[in-house]
Amino acid sequence: MTPADQNPPRYITRILIILLVSRILLCLVGVGAREIFKADGVLEIETTTYSTIQSLDIWGRWDSVFYIFIAEHGYTDLLTSQVIEPLDLRLLNFFPLYPLLTYLLSYILGNTFISALIISNVALGGATLLLFRIVQKESDDKTAFHSVMFFILFPTSFLFSAALTESLFLFLVFLTVYAIQRSRWFLALIMTIFASVTRSIGIFLLIPLIFYYVSEVQRGFLNFFSRLWEIVIPAGIGLFIWGAYNYSLTGDFLYFTHTQKYWFKELGNPFTNISSLLSGKDDEKFYAIYFIIVLVLLLAGWRRIRLPYLVWAVAVMFLPISMGIGNTMRYIAPVFPIYILLGKSIRNPYVLIGTYVALGLSQILLFMNWAIGGPLVV
């Protein structure tokens, strides 16, 4: 056991305070933006109201309405509230763990939306501490702290506090990585199962899991292939259960893979899709440039990122763009190697502070756009 496992990190309290202050600041910014733009008559808030308390309501947008609906009604028809028929199975696009946890907590609290926010923010706190421990184990306290700061300040970090799956998914990803670092293979498998029923990309955790299992346990690929079932089959249990539920409703075990058509998504050439975004509207160009910048940073800093996690990051980034999803910003948010890369790379204190400020201001601007119903960060 390393000293990092034996002693409480010096920075933990500081990290939690910074995280709390950042969320309070975002609440003030979001509520203020709504009031200002409402007075100007340009506010375009969604028709869905999640809470009469503005500082809470600002954390629900886009897919939040579907997760809240599923938590309250299950996978039923949005229009008729009846058990969904084969021709209207759009909700099976949304994986079940987040709405299930929301449903269970709402039994205690009596409020579905607040339950969803609590799950998201508890998961965010856990993810933040796990990221510190992950980087601390392979580096040092200072690098771990800077990595966490980049995570908190990154432009799309506010999504981890919203009524969405992002923070729960990343929490499970970090638990998997944490377990892999410490060769706790059973825990890593369980977390992979949970991640795969939170987001479809959770199954990509097999990439680092298989790599490290081969290198540390099986001692070679030839021996590993004869025992591949020890990793792949258990890790696929979550998707198997979800597929079985899909089959019970539709007669199609893989129906959740076909629901993309209801959301105008089809698998295609990712490079063609990026090119289309670059030649599209201003917001589409913004999404494409954002995607390219993050990808270039990851590839340029490949020496500072462990190969399995770099491969995982690229896979997570390319799946949504391959599906024709224009706005990839939300889907890039859980790509944690970018936070570690920045934490390891930027050492000059002036550059560090300048980068913190630039990222923090970018997050504030994006959150204002989110709070007033703007089109960015779907």
Automatic annotation (TrEMBL):
It is a multi-pass membrane protein. The keyword Glycosyltransferase applies. It is found in: Endoplasmic reticulum membrane. GO terms for biological process: GPI anchor biosynthetic process. Keywords: Endoplasmic reticulum, Glycosyltransferase, GPI-anchor biosynthesis, Membrane, Transferase, Transmembrane, Transmembrane helix. GO terms for cellular component: mannosyltransferase complex; membrane. Pfam families: Mannosyl_trans2. Pathway: Glycolipid biosynthesis; glycosylphosphatidylinositol-anchor biosynthesis. The chain crosses the membrane at residues 12-33, 91-110, 116-135, 147-180, 186-212, 224-245, 286-302, 309-333, 353-372. GO terms for molecular function: alpha-1,6-mannosyltransferase activity; GPI mannosyltransferase activity. InterPro entries: PIG-V/Gpi18. PANTHER family: GPI MANNOSYLTRANSFERASE 2 (PTHR12468). This is Glycosyltransferase RgtA/B/C/D-like domain-containing protein.
